[in-house]
């Protein structure tokens, strides 16, 4: 089905990355992300958090240091 929607920039970036990674059209990627979100139970803690700062998602604090080598390895694996 064809429709027009306004999508936040961070959501569009996520959809484009999924589309590229999974070799889908942008519409298929958006549909997949909506289905994933709709099938997950709502987590009230997530709904009350500020998930984004600018264009970047904030992740929970972890007790590990991420090194540049790990970032490069992940970027190579993801094809970025």
Which short descriptors sum up this protein?
single chain, 80 residues
Per-chain topology:
Elements (H helix, E strand, L loop, with lengths): L8 H14 L3 H14 L4 H5 L3 E2 L2 E2 L10 H11 L2
Antiparallel strand pairs: 1-2
Helix pairs in contact: 1-2
Polypeptide structure, described:
The protein is mostly helical and 80 residues long. The chain has a two-stranded antiparallel sheet.
Main structural class: mainly alpha
- The side-by-side strand order for the widest beta sheet comes to 1-2
Helix content: 55-70%
Largest sheet: 2 strands, antiparallel
**Which strand-content bin applies to the residues?**
5-15%
Order of helices and strands: HHHEEH
Intertermini distance: 31 Å
Number of helices: 4
Average pLDDT level: 83
Return Rg in Å. Answer: 15 Å
Summary, kept brief:
Helix content is 55%, strand content 5%. With 80 residues, it is mostly helical.
């Amino acid at each position: 089905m064809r429709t027009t929607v306004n999508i936040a920039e961070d959501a569009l970036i996520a959809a484009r990355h999924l589309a590229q990674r999974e070799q889908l059209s942008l519409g298929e990627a958006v549909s997949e992300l909506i289905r994933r979100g709709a099938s997950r139970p709502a987590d009230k803690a997530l709904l009350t958090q500020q998930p984004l700062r600018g264009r970047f998602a904030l992740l929970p604090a972890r007790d590990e240091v991420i090194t540049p080598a790990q970032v490069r390895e992940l970027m190579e694996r993801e094809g970025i």
